[in-house]
Design goal:
heterodimer, A: alpha+beta, CBS-domain, Heat Shock Protein 90, 3-stranded mixed beta sheet, 13 helices, about 40% helix, disordered N terminus, disordered C terminus, B: alpha/beta, 5-stranded mixed beta sheet, 5 helices, about 35% helix, globular
């Protein structure tokens, strides 16, 4: 894992990217206000003021014969009031130099226009250049929030589907295999594989207790590969509806006396490793405590194979794995 | 007992991101500087008191779903360790006092070892 600064956590970076992605994915017509109250250019500013007050508008498009000819904002009304000219016609004070956006453009285009122009609202035109709606920054915020919420619900759905993976797929024997290569001496990444395995198990619907027990067992195995092997080794996790089989294997140097290695407190760890908190001589003992079945096969020539099995169908902790 | 009370009573420094610590329950305590012993002895939603400040403590705390790790004698984890802790949602607290003193103060507050 690359070290990252606390203020830009993975989760945060994910959200930023998601919002940005959404700004490109979402179209303007999906977030704009469609039901637009248009003004006629030939009403008086006084009348427009009343409409703005009653409807709580801060701006409105001006249309003549179905064509957009201008936009009237609160600022224009203030302008007229200041000149004591409230009985003037809308067409005299409206803004005719308009920046518009197209309804099928991505929301990001509207965002760019807002950033460039400092306008509060933009008229949205359809393919024929007719007024289709109005978009404000608030519309965009609401639209993005709604889309994020939808995405979140989709993520929940994925999690739900993952937890039903084994029910949905029918075969003689279904299993999911996860493999992780562990490098000798790689203390920086130590524990990454086990936390990934724990997360995968939770996503697949395992109870927190089962996921935690597997995580602890695999962590000890992972650290053994990092500390005690010649070149590191491999973790192989096979998940089936009724059991989880976790294997750690390496190509040496092998354990001289397996029985002695299993004795609580026995350790061959160097002082350097002990200073990092390892070498309590409890790793294999912990594994045995966490899993239902454990087998350790080792020889000087062929290295070490560690099998750890957790059965799922005789516990109440994981009801959906019962066939 | 919640984490907020512990941070307040023991006057601990929060090294990781702050959150609503009054909503984080603390059910038991454990103290050791050997990781495998912690794996056996510490319980979920517990606090772990240790002198160790290197990054290996994060994986252990995350795997065990601990409420917090109290690092004693002002041992200072490096930036990468703190970043890793934030990423995994592990809370790191710091005290200038030694393990024995911190454990004693936790015990005085009524915190006990996990029940088997």
């Amino acid at each position: 894992m690359t070290p990252i600064q606390p203020e830009i956590s993975d989760k945060r970076a994910e959200t930023i990217t998601k919002t940005e992605e959404l700004a490109y994915e979402l179209r303007i017509h999906e977030v704009m206000t469609k039901d637009v109250h248009s003004l006629s250019p030939d009403i008086k500013m006084e009348e427009a003021l009343e409409i703005f007050q009653k409807e709580r508008f801060s701006g409105a498009p001006v249309e003549q014969d179905g064509e957009l000819i201008g936009i009237l904002s609160i600022e224009d009304l203030i302008h007229a009031l200041r000149e004591n000219h409230i009985d003037a016609l809308v067409r005299e004070y409206m803004t005719t130099q308009m920046t518009t956006v197209r309804k099928h453009d991505p929301v990001v285009e509207a965002l760019k226009t807002f950033a460039r122009t400092n306008y509060g609202r933009l008229p949205v035109l359809d393919e024929n250049g007719k007024l289709a709606g109005i978009i404000t920054k608030g519309d965009i915020t609401n639209g993005l929030l709604k889309a994020l919420q939808r995405n979140y619900q989709e993520e929940e759905l994925i999690r739900y589907r993952a937890s039903h993976l084994f029910e949905d797929i029918v075969s003689g024997r279904t299993s999911l295999i996860l493999r992780y290569d562990i490098r000798k001496g790689d203390f920086i990444h130590g524990g990454n594989a086990s936390s990934n395995i724990k997360r995968a198990l939770l996503r697949l619907g395992a109870s927190p207790q089962v996921a935690r027990r597997c995580g602890i067992a695999v962590y000890e195995a992972e650290m053994n590969l990092i500390i005690h092997t010649n070149h590191g080794g491999t973790l192989r996790i096979e998940i089936e509806p009724h059991k989880i089989t976790m294997e750690a294997y390496d190509d040496g140097p092998g354990i001289e006396d397996v029985e002695e290695a299993m004795r609580p407190g026995f350790s061959t760890a160097t002082n350097e490793v002990r200073e990092m908190g390892f070498g309590a001589g409890m790793g294999l003992v912990n594994i045995k405590r966490c899993v239902d079945e454990m087998r350790l096969i080792s020889s000087k020539d062929r290295g070490t194979n560690l099998y750890m099995i957790m059965y799922l169908n005789d516990t109440d902790e994981n009801p959906q794995t019962v066939n | 007992m919640n984490l907020e009370e512990i941070i307040h009573n023991l006057n601990l420094k929060v090294l990781t991101d702050t959150r609503d610590f009054s909503a984080v329950p603390v059910k038991s305590g454990y103290c050791s500087d050997l990781l495998s012993c912690v794996m056996t002895g510490a319980a979920p939603e517990g606090v772990w008191v240790t002198l160790m400040a290197h990054s290996n403590i994060i994986a252990v705390a995350a795997l065990l779903d601990l409420s917090a790790v109290i690092i004693t004698e002002d041992a200072q984890p490096d930036e990468d360790t703190i970043a890793k802790a934030n990423e995994k949602g592990v809370t790191l607290l710091s005290s200038p006092k030694p393990n024995f003193q911190v454990v004693g103060e936790l015990w005085d507050m009524g915190l006990r070892a996990k029940q088997d």
